[in-house]
Each structure stands twice: as C-alpha cells, then as structure tokens.
Amino acid sequence: MSVAVKNLTKTYGNQKAVNNISFELRKSEIVGFIGPNGSGKTTTMKCICGILPPDNGSIEIEGKDVYANMLTIKRMIGYLPEHNPLYTEMYVREYLNYIDGIYNKKAGRKERVDEIIELTGLTVERKKLIGQLSKGYRQRVGLAQALIHNPPVLILDEPTTGLDPNQLVEIRTMISELSADKTVLLSTHILQEVEAICDRVLIINQGEIVADGSAETIRKSKNKNEQTIYIEFNTSIKQELLEEIEGINKVQNVSVKEFLIAGNSKDDLREKIFTFATQNNITILTIRKVEETLEQAFRKLTTGK
Description:
CATH topology of the largest domain: Rossmann fold
Shape: elongated
Largest sheet: 6 strands, mixed
Radius of gyration: 25 Å
Structural class: alpha/beta
Strand content: 25-35%
Number of domains: 2
Helix content: 25-40%
Number of helices: 11
CATH architecture of the largest domain: 3-Layer(aba) Sandwich
C-alpha cells in the first residue's frame, strides 16, 4: 500500500474532528475524499502530510511512519492546501525555482521548472507576478509547486477551485495522467469531478468514514433492495390506483400523467406496471428505471435524506 491510515483520531478541544478512522490508498490510484464542510477532510489531509499531529493512530507512507521520518516523508508528498498560500510578490518562474531549490540541493534546474510550467498550463503566465494572476492561474501555480519535486503521493485539497470549465477539463486530464505513477488523494465538492476521474471514493461525515468504494458501488449499495421507475402514461391516472399495485411502496406525482414509483419488489416493477396498463386499457408512453446518483447517495449518507 502507498498510504495507510490506521485508527486516526484528532480532537480540537471537546470536538472530535476525526474519530478513529482507517483506510488505505493503493499505488496509481485516484481517491476522491468527499464530505460536508467540517466533516474532517482537511484535518485528515493535514495529518497525512505531517502538518497536524494526531492524538491517536498511525499514518504510514510507503511503509514509513510519517512522524518518525518527517523529512523523508516531506519529499514523498506533494500537497496543495485548500487555501493556496503563495508569495504574491514573486514571479511565477522565480517562485517555482525557489520551491525547487527547497527540495533539491542544485537549485535552478531550468529543465524541471520548464517541464512543470508546461504541464500545468502556466507558459503564458510564467513571467507575471503571482499577485497579478487570476484565481484559476494561482491554483495552477499551487499545483505546480506540489509537483515540482515529483512526489509519489499527491494530496490535493480542492485543486479545481476557481477554474473555468475548460480549465477544469485540463486539470482533470492532468491529474488522471499523473496517476500512472502517483497515488492521488483528491478532496472536492464537485461530485461530477469525482465520478469523472476517481477510481475510488471515501465519504467522511462527522469525523467518520461512512462509505468506501467505487462511485457505482456507493450508488447501488444505498439502493440495492429498492427500485425506482419513471413512467409517463397517455392520460391522467389517479395516484391511488398505482399505489394498489403489488410491490409498490411509494408513488410520487411528477404531473397528472407522470409518476416516480418506488418499491422493494424482487421482481421488475415494470412488468407489473405493464400488466396494470393492459388491464385498464392505458398506453405507456415512457417507462425506465431511475438510477440513484452519487449526489443522492451522498445526501443519504451525510444527512439521512
């Protein structure tokens, strides 16, 4: 395993920000780390990076304990914090050259700095002061500093904040390509982003891991004994008639002709609805199963709704 978090607990005063959580991140894996604000995401990431010491538990990267091998671990991690701290009075190239010098005795490796500038799409802005950059380009500088020393583990806290739709696609593509030889832990509130690039999803709520698996697995696990059907008839139907069909637990009106029908039946509800329509001489215009989205599963897991 690339990263192993075991029984991690972190408390602020009387509040447990992280409560005895454990998970592992495999090599060449992109893991989406999602949860409501205040759920413990940033605290967990800071503990992994060695910025915050945990109250209990252990964290290992490539088999090395983070707090017993701090300097070695720092070279193994690239970290982009949620609030991207930058020296705004420095030029882009100057700043990246400076960061490169922190990690390498031979400062000013022009080839490496040029490579990172191109990789993160900063070529046009490389001669500007960081303070003159847009928020999106500042995020790119933050990504560049996290990558400059070519670490095997990337911890990215909201890396696409402030990016326009085109930049989002570019950064997502870059992160996907980086995962070929890096482990990536990615925190974001954009669930489409998680589904687009993440191999696995960790959902944290109130300091505890409440789901761990692929986006598809998490969607289905919260709805595996249920099925929801969308149906549109050619005429208005009384809701009470649909509620009488065997296996149907809930009927929701979309319009007088359209309904969302939920049930726990092991049989396909569509067969029973077809039988109902035939017996009542009603035409079905549209019928389809409705799959639960990651957003819906997330809300169930974090709010119960």
